[in-house]
What does this fold into?
Amino acid sequence: EDKVVQSPLSLVVHEGDTVTLNCSYEVTNFRSLLWYKQEKKAPTFLFMLTSSGIEKKSGRLSSILDKKELFSILNITATQTGDSAVYLCAKIYNQGGKLIFGQGTELSVKP
Amino acid sequence: GAGVSQSPSNKVTEKGKDVELRCDPISGHTALYWYRQSLGQGLEFLIYFQGNSAPDKSGLPSDRFSAERTGGSVSTLTIQRTQQEDSAVYLCASSLTGPRYGYTFGSGTRLTVV
It folds into this structure.
């Protein structure tokens, strides 16, 4: 069965901490990997990763893909309470365009 | 429109009734997707429409679920004879042409079957 596995499932940190979220996937029909932030209902797009070893960065968030080891990480530095959310990782299939999502990591940032 | 619009935002229905959920994608987006998110779970793919091609229905959980997309724009997801396990948030997303471009999600419909 094709799977995307995220870890940890939940994480509690304090403001200012740095966190690393993990996502591993199966290589079958892999095209790209996406990261989303979900605060209420609608996931909002963070990054799309297609090439290995190239870091994508947006403010305090950054992400990188390792296509040899089949995983990606999402880093958040100097966390803020507004970073509290569920972070979802998803694999794009090579054909058709459907996404396979991981279970998500629930991040809680305490003041 | 400016974003993906879904209606209703919340729906409570009795077990056994049929429901229709609507999605208005971003204007010009030819790809449209339906996902389901049960409590505490990740998103589960249901169905994918791309232009005039036959939809990818591989994620529909049973024959009680169906979806159509009229005129390449608005889509309706229909659940017949609803069951309690159908309770979830149903999310719609659209993208410009497919997987090479970012997906934009709607705010979802929270369906509760009582």
Q: What stands out?
A: Chain A has a mean pLDDT of 91.
